[in-house]
Amino acid sequence: MDAISVATTAYSGLKVAGQIASGLRDIDVLMKSAEYKMQIIELVDRIADSKMAVSEVQEALVEKDREIRRLSELLSQRESVVYALFAYYRKKANGKPVGEPYCAPCFEVRNNLVHLTRCSKGIHQAQCPECKATFPELTTILSP
Ligand SMILES: [Zn+2]
Protein backbone atom coordinates (compact mmCIF):
# COMPACT_ATOMS: atom_id res chain seq x y z
CA MET A 1 0.00 0.00 0.00
CA ASP A 2 1.49 3.36 -0.99
CA ALA A 3 1.82 6.31 1.41
CA ILE A 4 -1.17 8.17 -0.05
CA SER A 5 -3.40 5.11 0.44
CA VAL A 6 -2.15 4.75 4.03
CA ALA A 7 -2.97 8.42 4.72
CA THR A 8 -6.40 8.00 3.11
CA THR A 9 -7.09 4.93 5.28
CA ALA A 10 -5.93 6.81 8.41
CA TYR A 11 -8.17 9.75 7.50
CA SER A 12 -11.17 7.45 7.02
CA GLY A 13 -10.48 5.75 10.36
CA LEU A 14 -10.29 9.10 12.14
CA LYS A 15 -13.52 10.22 10.48
CA VAL A 16 -15.35 7.15 11.82
CA ALA A 17 -13.72 7.58 15.25
CA GLY A 18 -14.93 11.18 15.27
CA GLN A 19 -18.46 10.07 14.46
CA ILE A 20 -18.36 7.48 17.26
CA ALA A 21 -17.00 10.06 19.73
CA SER A 22 -19.72 12.51 18.69
CA GLY A 23 -22.29 9.77 19.24
CA LEU A 24 -20.96 9.19 22.78
CA ARG A 25 -21.75 12.83 23.50
CA ASP A 26 -25.43 12.03 23.02
CA ILE A 27 -25.53 9.22 25.59
CA ASP A 28 -27.22 10.79 28.59
CA VAL A 29 -25.75 8.41 31.17
CA LEU A 30 -22.22 9.37 30.18
CA MET A 31 -22.96 13.04 29.77
CA LYS A 32 -24.34 13.40 33.30
CA SER A 33 -20.79 13.18 34.57
CA ALA A 34 -18.86 16.40 33.99
CA GLU A 35 -15.58 14.46 33.79
CA TYR A 36 -16.88 12.16 31.04
CA LYS A 37 -18.33 15.15 29.26
CA MET A 38 -14.96 16.94 29.24
CA GLN A 39 -13.15 13.78 28.11
CA ILE A 40 -15.57 13.27 25.23
CA ILE A 41 -15.19 16.91 24.16
CA GLU A 42 -11.41 16.57 24.27
CA LEU A 43 -11.58 13.29 22.34
CA VAL A 44 -13.69 14.90 19.60
CA ASP A 45 -11.28 17.86 19.42
CA ARG A 46 -8.21 15.63 19.19
CA ILE A 47 -9.77 13.49 16.47
CA ALA A 48 -10.65 16.65 14.50
CA ASP A 49 -7.05 17.89 14.88
CA SER A 50 -5.71 14.50 13.77
CA LYS A 51 -8.00 14.46 10.73
CA MET A 52 -6.68 17.87 9.74
CA ALA A 53 -3.06 16.73 10.21
CA VAL A 54 -3.61 13.57 8.14
CA SER A 55 -5.27 15.65 5.44
CA GLU A 56 -2.20 17.90 5.32
CA VAL A 57 0.03 14.81 5.08
CA GLN A 58 -2.08 13.57 2.14
CA GLU A 59 -1.62 16.88 0.35
CA ALA A 60 2.12 16.85 1.04
CA LEU A 61 2.41 13.31 -0.33
CA VAL A 62 0.56 14.24 -3.50
CA GLU A 63 2.87 17.22 -3.93
CA LYS A 64 5.95 15.02 -3.31
CA ASP A 65 4.75 12.51 -5.93
CA ARG A 66 4.25 15.36 -8.39
CA GLU A 67 7.78 16.64 -7.66
CA ILE A 68 9.29 13.15 -8.02
CA ARG A 69 7.57 12.79 -11.43
CA ARG A 70 8.87 16.22 -12.51
CA LEU A 71 12.43 15.41 -11.40
CA SER A 72 12.30 12.01 -13.09
CA GLU A 73 11.30 13.71 -16.33
CA LEU A 74 14.16 16.21 -15.94
CA LEU A 75 16.63 13.40 -15.27
CA SER A 76 15.37 11.54 -18.31
CA GLN A 77 15.76 14.71 -20.39
CA ARG A 78 19.31 15.24 -19.05
CA GLU A 79 20.22 11.68 -19.97
CA SER A 80 18.88 12.16 -23.51
CA VAL A 81 21.32 14.95 -24.45
CA VAL A 82 25.09 15.32 -24.64
CA TYR A 83 27.33 18.41 -24.61
CA ALA A 84 29.47 19.00 -27.70
CA LEU A 85 30.70 21.98 -29.73
CA PHE A 86 29.50 24.55 -27.12
CA ALA A 87 25.91 23.24 -27.24
CA TYR A 88 23.72 20.29 -26.31
CA TYR A 89 22.60 17.70 -28.83
CA ARG A 90 20.30 14.68 -28.75
CA LYS A 91 22.30 11.63 -27.74
CA LYS A 92 22.33 8.59 -29.96
CA ALA A 93 22.32 5.08 -28.48
CA ASN A 94 26.12 5.04 -28.77
CA GLY A 95 26.37 8.27 -26.73
CA LYS A 96 27.40 10.44 -29.68
CA PRO A 97 25.67 13.79 -30.42
CA VAL A 98 23.27 14.14 -33.33
CA GLY A 99 20.92 16.73 -34.83
CA GLU A 100 20.46 20.45 -34.29
CA PRO A 101 22.18 22.18 -31.34
CA TYR A 102 20.33 23.37 -28.22
CA CYS A 103 21.33 26.46 -26.23
CA ALA A 104 23.72 25.42 -23.42
CA PRO A 105 22.92 28.30 -21.00
CA CYS A 106 19.16 27.74 -21.31
CA PHE A 107 19.54 24.03 -20.64
CA GLU A 108 22.05 24.35 -17.81
CA VAL A 109 20.22 27.16 -15.98
CA ARG A 110 16.53 26.41 -16.64
CA ASN A 111 16.49 22.82 -18.01
CA ASN A 112 14.98 24.29 -21.15
CA LEU A 113 15.91 22.78 -24.51
CA VAL A 114 15.87 25.60 -27.06
CA HIS A 115 17.19 25.11 -30.59
CA LEU A 116 19.72 27.70 -31.72
CA THR A 117 18.85 29.70 -34.81
CA ARG A 118 21.12 30.99 -37.52
CA CYS A 119 22.20 34.65 -37.31
CA SER A 120 22.28 36.59 -40.55
CA LYS A 121 24.45 39.49 -39.39
CA GLY A 122 27.50 40.09 -37.19
CA ILE A 123 30.36 37.77 -36.40
CA HIS A 124 28.17 35.21 -34.64
CA GLN A 125 26.58 32.39 -36.56
CA ALA A 126 24.00 31.30 -34.03
CA GLN A 127 21.70 32.82 -31.44
CA CYS A 128 19.29 31.49 -28.86
CA PRO A 129 15.80 32.87 -29.49
CA GLU A 130 15.03 32.55 -25.77
CA CYS A 131 18.03 34.06 -23.89
CA LYS A 132 19.58 35.85 -26.90
CA ALA A 133 23.03 34.29 -26.20
CA THR A 134 25.20 34.18 -29.32
CA PHE A 135 27.56 31.45 -30.47
CA PRO A 136 30.47 31.47 -32.93
CA GLU A 137 29.11 28.57 -34.93
CA LEU A 138 25.97 26.57 -35.58
CA THR A 139 26.83 22.97 -36.27
CA THR A 140 24.26 20.41 -37.24
CA ILE A 141 25.52 16.89 -36.63
CA LEU A 142 24.11 14.44 -39.13
CA SER A 143 23.56 10.83 -38.22
CA PRO A 144 25.89 8.60 -40.27
ZN1 LIG B 1 19.30 30.27 -24.50
What would you note in describing this structure?
The chain has 144 residues and is α+β, with helices and mostly antiparallel strands. The protein folds into two domains: 3-78; 80-135, no CATH class. Helices cover 56% and strands 15% of the residues. The chain has four helices and six strands. A three-stranded antiparallel beta sheet has the order 1-2-3. The chain has a three-stranded antiparallel beta sheet with strand order 4-5-6, with no helix packed on it. Helix 1 (3-25) packs antiparallel against helix 3 (34-79). The longest helix is centred in the middle third of the chain and has 46 residues, at 34-79. The chain is rod-shaped. It starts with a helix and ends in a 9-residue tail after the last strand. The mean pLDDT is 88. It binds zinc ion. The site of zinc ion has 8 residues, from helix 4.
How are the elements arranged and paired?
Blueprint: H1 3-25, H2 28-31, H3 34-79, E1 81-84, E2 87-91, E3 97-102, H4 104-110, E4 117-118, E5 126-127, E6 134-135
Antiparallel strand pairs: 1-2, 2-3, 4-5, 5-6
Helix pairs in contact: 1-3
The structure holds zinc ion.
Number of domains: 2
Quickly give the structural class. alpha+beta
Give the biggest sheet: 3 strands, antiparallel
Strand content: 5-15%
Taking the alpha carbons of the first and last residues, their distance comes to 49 Å
Overall geometry: rod-shaped
What ligand molecules are bound, each kind once?
A: zinc ion
User: Helices and strands, in N-to-C order?
Assistant: HHHEEEHEEE
Oligomer: single chain
Q: What integer is the average pLDDT? A: 88
Radius of gyration: 30 Å
Low-pLDDT residue spans: none
- Give the number of helices: 4
Strand order of the largest sheet: 1-2-3
Helix fraction bin: 55-70%
Q: How many strand segments?
A: 6
